[in-house]
Amino acid sequence: MANGFSDRVLGAAGFGLCKAAISVAYITAMGSVSSSVGFVSELDFMFTMNMASFVTAFVVLLLVGTGRLRPGRLSQVPAVIALLVGFFLSATGVMTGLPVGATAALYGLLCGFALTVLNAAWLEVFAAESDATTGVCQVLGGLVVQCALVSVAPLLASFAASVLSIVAVATSALLLSRLKRKVAFPGRVPLLPERSDERFRLLQACLCLFVLVGVVGILHTTVLGSQSEHIVGDVNMWMPLVAATMLTAVVAGLTMRHPDPTAVYKGCLPVMLVLLSLLPFFGEVLGGLAGLVMITCYDVCGMVFLLFIVDRTRALGVSVYALSSVYSGGSGLFLAVGLGIGNALGALSADYGLSLLTLLAFAAIYPLALVLLVVLRRVYPAGAAGSRAEGGEPAGVAQVEGAGRASAVARGAGAGEVRAAAGADGERRASAWASAGDCAGEGRLRSADAGADAQAAVGAAASTGEASSDLLRAKIEPGVAPVVEDVLAAGADAVAARFDLTRREREILGYLARGRSARFIAETLVISENTAWAHIKRIYAKTGVHSKQELMSMVERRAGEGAGR
């Protein structure tokens, strides 16, 4: 997405208008109520909205998984209509004569469907930016716009808030339509990453968000109607929103290259545990402070998760619809479950005379601690043998340069020697690919024998069990030896075209795809090592990856996609 600065500003503004309208709908039950307890406006609305979000997300995931919904094909129109209809019905008072529960359920259905679809539609545009940082900055800008607009909403009457929300939704829809016309969406992308360690890291991030959502839901409904209702009732919702936006901006500034909800969770957890532990003893003293901090922690994690979606979909090459749907649908499900548990705790306290705040503390602390155990678990790519190499990468991955040098003696070697190099303990994958690249690079495999060596090298990479399955799925016709160099070059060309790399960046990408170090690249291209590093960092920023391993996997994946056509 090669948009200029003005388009990026419009993107941030449009996303902010959309988020502000959804926030108003969320807090005011589509303008049908004028007050709320924390972010719970009306329980019938909340339950219906969250379940509608979950069902919508499930349908989107099903469509993506079966190939019926490809990138760029998710229409915002039904969601925009749903929001406009909801705000219009609320502003005109057409639903006044109907039962309150039925009205709230209808508004919740419209809101839950709309927020799930619009989140996915906007995040897809940001993920298609020319570099990950630009997309992340637009999301952050949209959150700032949301914060500014929502802080003004309490000053407006319900009718005025509904009318302005209609204007915001319509304007946001026009801006999104404009931006989507300038986006080149990728072809079909997988639902989840292929590597188990990458899937587990996504699971960790999701659990951090979901448990916070559930705990905040428990907090709200547990204290509803009790003498402790002020814990969340005294919280004006724009206050945690402002605090969360500021903290998210700080987090984004510190981790722009790699926004991570698990880091936010680990930072917030000690504060939440202290507050929850003190609630049974000092609940009256803590009052709204406890609710403010808990809601702020949830908001920060949710906002950072939006940045995380944009960053990870680019780096892993997975569907933004999938991650966005997991975010919206999972949050909706866990919030509904949390609200239900809170209701049960309130009833349990009333029936058996148990301390309400003690029940709340136990119900909240245990899931928070259990998720921490999952978050602290470290998973390495298969074959890493649990050890870490310099720079924080698994052994056999971060040491690609060393493996390439060690296997340089295999230049022009036959299949047996390549397999022997590939079998070196701890460096099997790197050696196999470096040997294959070296073998292919000698005279561009001018002879049939060299082509056979390259084919054997691909087989050696496969025998290690570490090569990307995308690349290994490349079609191998009998009698036509695949040339590894050409396969990797095709993958590098595809990545360069997808992310608008310059000619020099494309050249350096080719070396990185073969595991070459910055020093090797500098010596080969007769440039300084600092210049080589500058190009490498720009390649990382544009492609949204954070390591050479991720970049190599991306090139292999693109090469496999090209070979499979």
UniProtKB/TrEMBL annotation:
Entry keyword annotation includes rRNA processing: no
Protein's recorded name: Helix-turn-helix transcriptional regulator
Gene3D superfamilies for this protein: Winged helix-like DNA-binding domain superfamily/Winged helix DNA-binding domain
Start and end residues of each HTH luxR-type domain: 494-559
Any one GO molecular-function label of the UniProt entry: DNA binding
Domain of life: Bacteria
Gene Ontology biological process: regulation of DNA-templated transcription
Keywords: DNA-binding, Membrane, Transcription, Transcription regulation, Transmembrane, Transmembrane helix
Coiled-coil stretches noted in the UniProt entry, renumbered to this chain: none
Transmembrane segments: 12-33, 45-65, 77-98, 104-123, 135-153, 159-179, 200-225, 237-256, 263-282, 288-308, 320-342, 354-376
